[in-house]
Design brief:
It is a single chain. Helix 5 runs antiparallel to helix 7. The protein has 2 domains: 135 residues, Schlafen, AAA domain (Methyltransferase, Cobalt-precorrin-4 Transmethylase, Domain 2); 203 residues, no CATH class. The chain is α+β, with helices and mostly antiparallel strands and 355 residues long. The protein is elongated, with a radius of gyration of 25 Å. Helices cover 30% and strands 28% of the residues.
């Protein structure tokens, strides 16, 4: 939970309005103008570097004094309604936005905490405004600034499409995955790809000693240097590589899992529960790896299951397609394993005869 403001520091004037803190005396979510105003404030912080908005605090700028104007009513209901109002009226939906209450004499004040949200630009869906916090003011994003933020997202998506295609073609050319079987490919490209100051995996201390995480089909070995990056493999009992996790020098991340769709031959069906557990575990470990390497997003993400018809039973179960894709690369503010797992399962199910 984000740190709540210190009331003594607040009332003594040690905390004042500025680039990160903002005060609002009151809000009325039943009034259209008041609701639009608080959404504007939040959008402005999201398009800057985050911060806190304190509701129930009044600052007299002439006297530079601060006093509390406590809110009243059901505190839990107020927090939930405000949070839902903000998230439903901002596009795209912010990943880091919380509303908490601080009890004070006569009621409570609210703290809207906005971490660093990177899926910019954010827009107030009520007014259509794109604002950014600058000092103590919310100012409109200039056309050039707005265009630059939108182009960053588009460029990241396009770049992943190119790099992912090249990497998969190289895998095929080099014969790294030798089994003729279905494969799940997951590609990620973080925004750090464009940051020349962000240290590469090559320069990280202990990179060779670190073990890769456990894949659905067995433990990875330690990372090894290969052309263009580092990789770890998981192998079957015959020594055939069946899973691979690659980290590029440019921070392209590519994961391959062979046999991603467990088929119960005796029962003639796909074991969807097992598939959900295995893919979910893999993606949770991918998230942990990203966090350990300080790759916090946003990300361009791409996923597909290929080579389905290499197995006769899958030709029957998936008669309409040899490849299941999630469509073009998507832009994600954070990497969310649960959501991605469910999206993959839904697409696989929709492509099968079970649908």
């Amino acid at each position: 939970m984000p740190a709540m403001p210190d009331l003594n520091a607040l009332l003594s004037g040690a905390i004042g309005e500025g680039q990160r803190p903002d005060f609002k005396s009151e809000i009325n979510l039943d009034d259209k103008e008041s609701k639009a105003s608080i959404v504007d404030d939040v959008v402005a912080f999201l398009n800057a570097d985050g911060g806190q908005i304190l509701v129930g605090v009044h600052e007299d700028r002439k006297s530079e004094t601060v006093r509390l104007n406590p809110l009243t009513g059901n505190v839990d209901s107020f927090c939930l309604r405000l949070q839902d109002t903000l998230k439903s009226n901002i596009a795209p939906g912010p990943a880091q936005l919380t509303v908490d209450a601080l009890p004070v004499d006569g009621g409570f004040i609210l703290c809207i905490d906005l971490g660093v949200n990177t899926n910019k630009p954010y827009c107030n869906k009520i007014t259509g405004r794109y604002l950014q916090r600058r000092g103590r003011k919310n100012e409109p994003l200039l056309p050039g600034e707005l265009r630059a933020l939108q182009e960053t997202r588009s460029t990241l998506l396009d770049r992943l499409g190119v790099l992912s295609k090249e990497h998969r073609e190289n895998l095929k050319t080099d014969g790294l995955l030798t089994l003729d079987c279905p494969e799940l490919h997951i590609s990620l490209l973080p925004l750090e790809h464009f940051n020349p100051q962000f240290p590469g995996f090559e320069s990280r201390q202990g990179r060779y000693g670190r073990k890769g995480f456990v894949a659905p089909h067995g433990p990875f070995k330690a990372f090894e240097r290969v052309a263009g990056g580092h990789e770890v493999f998981s192998v079957d009992m015959h020594g055939n590589p069946i899973s691979r996790f690659f980290v590029g020098d440019d921070w392209l991340i590519h994961s391959v899992i062979c046999h991603p769709i467990p088929f119960e031959k005796g029962e003639g069906r796909v074991n969807f529960k097992k598939m959900e557990a295995e893919i979910g575990t893999h993606l949770l470990n991918v998230r942990d790896f990203l966090n350990n390497e300080s790759l916090h997003g946003p990300f361009a993400v791409e996923a597909s299951v290929v080579n389905l018809h290499s197995r006769d039973h899958f030709m029957t179960l998936f008669p309409r397609t040899k490849t299941i894709t999630m469509g073009r690369p998507t832009f994600a503010e954070t990497f969310e394993p649960d959501r991605m797992t469910q999206s993959l399962l839904d697409r696989i199910l929709q492509s099968s005869t079970y649908a």
